Amino acid sequence: LVWDEVGESDEDRDKVLFQLDQECLDVYKRKVDQALKSRDLLLQALDYSKMELARLASALGEKSIATSPEKTARTIKQQLAALAPTLEQLGKQKKERINKFADIMSRIEQIRGEIAGNLEIGQQVAIPQINEDDLTDEKLRDFQSQLQELEKKKRERLKKVLEHVSTVQDLCSVLKMEHFSIITEVHESLDDSVGKDHKSISNDTLSKLDRTIATLNEDKTLRLKKLQELATQLNDLWDLMDTPTEERSLFDHVTCNRTASAEEVTAPGALALDIINQAEVEVQRLDELKYSKMKEIAFKKQTTLEDIYASAHIVIDTAAAHDKIFALIESGSMEPTELIADMDSQILKAKEEALSRKEILDKVERWISACEEESWLEDYNRDDNRYNSGRGAHLNLKRAEKARIQVNKIPGLVETLVAKTTAWEENHGLSFTYDGVPLLAMLDEYVMLRQEKEEEKRKMREQKRYTEQLLNIDREGPFGTRVSPYRVASAKKVPSPKPNGSVANGSPGRRLSMSTQQNESKSSRSAGKKAAAVAAQPKTPASPNEAATVKEDDTPIQHTDADPVPCSP
């Protein structure tokens, strides 16, 4: 209509229509191209979805998922729509699995870093690189197993660290040292204010703790050794000076560990430096005091030694021993402890010797006692008034009965003494002396005296019988009985024995005159006098005429400091 009104020519009209046909054809071509491109994109998306589905299924290890659901659909969009839920589900599962892997691997790296000491306290490790192509359950379990092993190792290390810290604290308590500075010097996280989860468990920390414990144990051992040496010195000095128990108890905290091992010493402050210094000061004080009391201690022990020898009836040169001790102390040629130890050794040796002599000495005492009773019995038998009913007569009678029993045992006792003394001398290679006099000589002398006495008694009995025969002849003359002018009455009555066994005005008999060194101790002199008193027995007169004419043997015995008192019974 426009062209008719305008009067457009057919040629121009054909040209315009041709252009319109071309333009419409171009529009169709563009739409077809767009449709082809859209179809290609959908096919690519479908292929990608299939590939993604296969990759996710492979990465997650899901073998039961169908990777070709398009076989049941007709169009591309339907195929994509069928794959979309599965892809979405696998995508979520992949993210969850990646998060699990990331958490486990981070914890693994964290523990490894703590063990290696590469991480500071509170520092977190970077997110590790995760292989998204391998997110299977098997791989996850493998990482979980590694994590469990590392966590177990961490717990063991943490326990070891805490034990080491506790050991350090205990050692510091025994040594009385500040443990805080020692612990924090190893690592600042070992302080009690830091929680267990944040304490260092690195190899370096454990190594430092081991070195610290070794150093403290060495220090503990050295201090204990020093304290034990001081305790031993204290004990020796106390024994040396006879320190009372009350004063010793002030240092019980020092001496209680004298024989303990390092592991047994656990009391707080037991090995503190101030305790060691206190013990050193006390040892120094006692050591200085020791020299001032050394003479007193030495002579006290010498007195003990002399008492032992005196009780064993052994003669020693006490004056020479005192001079020797005095010279050693004044010259300082021997340490006081060595001198006291030597005297203790002498005392021990003396005790052993006294113990070896005890059995013989007991029998010697019995022998001396029996000899005393024998002497008393002889005096008692010579008393004509012994059967009178005077005061104490019954007591003397009982004593006489007992004395006869003891006297009858003397020969057997002497034989036993000779045998035992001979055996003792053979075993010891020494002569057995009693207050400086050889015991065998005393026994031989006694046997000889006893034999002489028996011989005198026999002669006296014969003389008595002879005298009686003469008297009987005089009485029976041819013109009857008459009194003999030779009858002799006793000029003096024989003194009666006292109840205690002593005899007034008794005359001493023979005595031993053996020459030996006199014991300077009082006990030795008293023992010699006792034995001499036993030996002093009166002689029996040979005839009644001689009863009144018996005189004492008043020959004096000269005594010097080197001559012994006669001690033979």
UniProtKB/TrEMBL annotation:
Keywords, sorted A to Z: Coiled coil, Cytoplasm, Microtubule, Nucleus, Phosphoprotein
GO molecular function: microtubule binding
Compositional bias segments (type: Low complexity): 524-543
Stretches with biased composition (Basic and acidic residues): 549-562
Localization per record: Cytoplasm; Nucleus
Region (Disordered): 489-569
Coiled-coil annotated residue ranges, if any: 133-160, 439-470
Cellular component terms per the entry's GO annotation: cytoplasm; microtubule; nucleus; spindle
Main location, first listed in the record: cytoplasm
Record-level GO BP terms: cytokinesis by cell plate formation; microtubule cytoskeleton organization
Superkingdom: Eukaryota
Keyword Transport set for record: no
Pfam families xrefs: MAP65_ASE1
InterPro entries cross-referenced by the UniProt entry: MAP65_Ase1_PRC1
Keyword Phosphoprotein: yes
Family: Belongs to the MAP65/ASE1 family.
PANTHER family, per the entry: OS02G0720200 PROTEIN, PROTEIN REGULATOR OF CYTOKINESIS 1 PRC1-RELATED
Protein name as catalogued: Microtubule-associated protein MAP65-1a
